[in-house]
Amino acid sequence: MQAISERSATARKHLSSPIASLATVIIAVLWSLPTAGLLVTSFRPQADIQRTGWWTASSFTLDNYRQVLESQTSGRSLSQAFVNSVVITLPSVLAPLAIALIAAYALAWIDFKGRDLLFVLIFALQIVPIQVTLIPLLNLYVDAGLAGTYWPVWISHTVYSLPLAIFLLHNFMRGLPKELVEAARVDGAGHVQIFLRVLAPLLVPAVAAFGIFQFLWVWNDLLVALTFANTPGTNPMTVALANLAGSRGSAWYLLSAAAFVSMLLPLIVFLSMQRFFVRGLLAGSVKG
After folding, report:
1. Each residue of 91-149: pLDDT tens digit?
2. SS3 for the chain, per residue?
């Protein structure tokens, strides 16, 4: 324990040194420069963009965002694509979380035959490439009459994320003190009461961490959306942006504005849940 404490103190000293702080600031500034340039470009008139660089900007306008939200790609506006992204993302986050919580609890706290083998099989599903499943799933959706609806993309995102969700939540649950569950059982609590009253409050960081990861993945996904939601009534922002880039590759003033429209909601979600996200990443790393 003393050696660990000494290493921790040494690492803390190096990370809090002025040189480390200066290097962090420099890296952050360099990393943020492209985003800052894109943000400035999104507010500049088209004529100014064609004449000078973003670092010499002198005039700004909101017309770019107005044109983006009214632009028609594949017969629909980007504002409709934004709504489609919300409709696709929310169920694709909530459904795997609900299923994974139940499965993770069963694998962590219910003793049944073949439990360890089932957990290994679920973990192994993470190595299956998504690309090899797209065409078989698409054929199944067409045969079932689900093509052209939100159901294919909802089901696909749920299925693809379940192995990782179950793995992460299972490991988090197994790291919780067994005494909590055993004390609840002694008091006569069943599995539903144990899960809702004992474990659920402790699972908030892990659920928030996975929820943010899943939200960002689904929101920014293009491959699954192109395969299962590539219709005018269901295509999300990623597909609409790809169509916009293909038809207006030189219209940087519109593409930059569209990029920030697509970034708005994920940024709000991440900033509002950042504290839970950090707690979820650190959960289980140290045991008292």
Report:
1. 999 999 999 999 998 888 888 888 889 888 988 888 888 888 999 999 999 999 888 89
2. CHHHHHHHHHHHHHHCCHHHHHHHHHHHHHHHHHHHHHHHHHCCCHHHHHHCCHHHCCCCCCHHHHHHHHCEECCEEHHHHHHHHHHHHHHHHHHHHHHHHHHHHHHHHCCCCCHHHHHHHHHHHHHCCCHHHHHHHHHHHHHCCCCCCCHHHHHHHHHHHHHHHHHHHHHHHHCCCHHHHHHHHHCCCCHHHHHHHHHHHHHHHHHHHHHHHHHHHHHHCCHHHHHHCCCCCCCCHHHHHHHHHHHCCCCHHHHHHHHHHHHHHHHHHHHHCHHHHHHHHHCCCCCC
Which amino acid, residue 196?
Answer: L
> Helix 204-220 crosses helix 237-247 at what angle (to 10 degrees)?
30
Dihedral Cα 125, 126, 131, 137, nearest 10 deg = 40
Low-confidence ranges of the chain (pLDDT < 70): 1-16, 71-76, 246-250, 276-288
Rounded CA-CA distance 126/142 in Å is 25
Tokens of 146: 């689900």
- pLDDT tens across 254-270, in order? 888 888 888 888 888 87
pTM of full prediction above 0.70: yes
Structure tokens at 67: 């044109």
